[in-house]
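Input (Multiple sugar transport system substrate-binding protein):
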Amino acid sequence: MKKTLVLLTAVLMGGASAEQVTLDLWAHWGSEQRRPTINRIVDTWNRKNPNVQVKYTFVPFDQLQTKTLAAVAAKNPPDVVVIDIRTTPLRAAKNQASNLSKLGADKLKSLFYPNLWSTATYKGDQYALPFVTDSRFLYYNKDLFKQAGIKKPPTTWDELDAAAKKLDQKAGPAYSRIGFYPLYGSFGFESWVANAGGSMWDEDRTNPRFTGAAAVKTLSWIKAWTDRLGARNVQAFKSSFGSGAQDPFISGKVGMIIDIGGYAATLKKYAPNMNYGMARIPTPTGQPGPGTSSGGGFNLEIPVGTKHPKEAFAFARYMATEGARIWAMEQNDFPGYKNASLSVTSPAFRMMSANMKYTEVTSAPRLAPSYSSLLDKAVEDAVYRGDDARQALEEAQGQVQKQVDNNK
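Output:
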């Protein structure tokens, strides 16, 4: 690692001023679990690069994109930003993210996993470096499984339903524990559609396909879960969830939940003695496919307007390589940098590595970037308000298709 940092410094100093430069890095990591890791990455760079210092600025996740675009418009952007892996092409198309191919990014292509590299490619040029992605798993409480007589984690949707019913516990009319519910955790409706072998979009993510067979089947399936548990019960139970020790899985409120591989680091911190297991997410047939799991993650962008593009690129390169190694070792997220993924040997990380071939990482549709709010409403109308699944999806498709047509 030290050798790599020295080499990076040499590259940087060869093309930049010897005067001290301060770069501003924006990211959303401010928790007691993740902030120490991003601080360590920045501090390691700063010790080795006295003339190019990096200042870390925490920006809440739900404000990060809006504040970044506002700063670009005001011509005072951060120099590097850690931002949603799915949306880089949107900013590239609007000249809000710098073209990194002009700074030499194309020479780094072979160092990164192709499916992650491609998330930041727009019209043949590169507009970000991949940092980390993730893959999702079914986490299950082994002690509760034993108490309920469940011998192994479910592999099919039917087995998932059967296991959940055995884990449910009621206290009067309300639930004290819900074995599983498809929309708890970090695996939403669109991910379940992919898990069933379908897609909400056509192949190039231009036109919506909300009324496909897999989408209608999946929404009807989730609606059946809700009807069994009771919509009010599902919503009221969710309102009691917290974070840390009050996390629903850690606190025993749910027996199974779907979350990212990095959730293992959360369990290690807040429930070090918890007896849990990780399993591939069940599918309708029990057989895995390309969309069995879903991945998100983050890219490193250099917003248009930075006053120090060469220095910013040198730091982004370091963070995407050696920084990603540090992050993977401490946070269990999967790095885009191939060599970094070889540095972590924990069982949870190795499982995530093996699951990447069954993990779908998609980009936001360029012509309807805000479609998710319309889709979410359709899901809520069907699941919580009793609307017909197909009709709810047809209405959402019509609204999203109008967005697409207006933006062509």
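Confidence is low (pLDDT under 50) at residues 1-17.
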